[in-house]
Amino acid sequence: MRYQITGKQIDVGEALQTHVKTELGSVIEKYAGRPTDGTVIFSKSGHEYVCETTVHLSTGLTCTAKAHENEIYAAFEACVEKMDKQLRRYKRRLKDHHKERTTPVELFGASSYILAGTTEADEAVEPDTLQPIIVAEMETKIPSLSVGEAVMQMELAGAPVLVFRNEKKDGVNVVYRREDGNIGWIDP
């Protein structure tokens, strides 16, 4: 597994890097078996250290965790605990996912846009046009998954919404977390 361990305005020492590799490697190996790469980013927010960890699995699934603590090692340990809990929760489905899928998840390219928001001053003035202002344009990937895999991916990534291409119907679908705690699925 490839590791990318960085710090945002923090010097990440050799001892911490070694600790991250051994601890994260043992947790991921327990559940996933075939991770491709992991990214760990340490930063400081006020008096707390923040650890953000993302692990990409060979099948295309991504697992993400984030934790805040007063010490940098404690932040990493809390982050690994969250990831361990997520992977433990989905262990059976991850194992079944590996058996059913012999090839990695197919990804399709799509355009992603960031639109300018409105401020209170902008709301007072009537706009000339209803077309939004595009701030940035990026390339994004849309995975081809079953609905169950999409829900699992959304939960593992900690995302509120996941857009995916439905393998069964060949159409673009959306799963999202509802305010009542349930999962919504849009199938146009």
Automatic annotation (TrEMBL):
Its main location: cytoplasm. InterPro entries: HPF/YfiA_ribosome-assoc, HPF_long/plastid, RHF-like, RHF/RaiA, Ribosom_S30AE_C, Ribosom_S30AE_C_sf. One of its GO terms (biological process) is negative regulation of translational elongation. Transmembrane segments: none annotated. Coiled coil: none annotated. SUPFAM superfamilies: Ribosome binding protein Y (YfiA homologue). It is found in: Cytoplasm. It holds the Pfam family Ribosom_S30AE_C. Keywords: Cytoplasm, Ribonucleoprotein, Ribosomal protein, Translation regulation. GO terms for cellular component: cytosolic small ribosomal subunit. Residues 131-184 form the Sigma 54 modulation/S30EA ribosomal protein C-terminal domain. GO terms for molecular function: ribosomal small subunit binding. Belongs to the HPF/YfiA ribosome-associated protein family. Long HPF subfamily. Required for dimerization of active 70S ribosomes into 100S ribosomes in stationary phase; 100S ribosomes are translationally inactive and sometimes present during exponential growth. Interacts with 100S ribosomes. Associates exclusively with 100S ribosomes, which are dimers of 70S ribosomes. HAMAP family: HPF (MF_00839). This is Ribosome hibernation promoting factor.
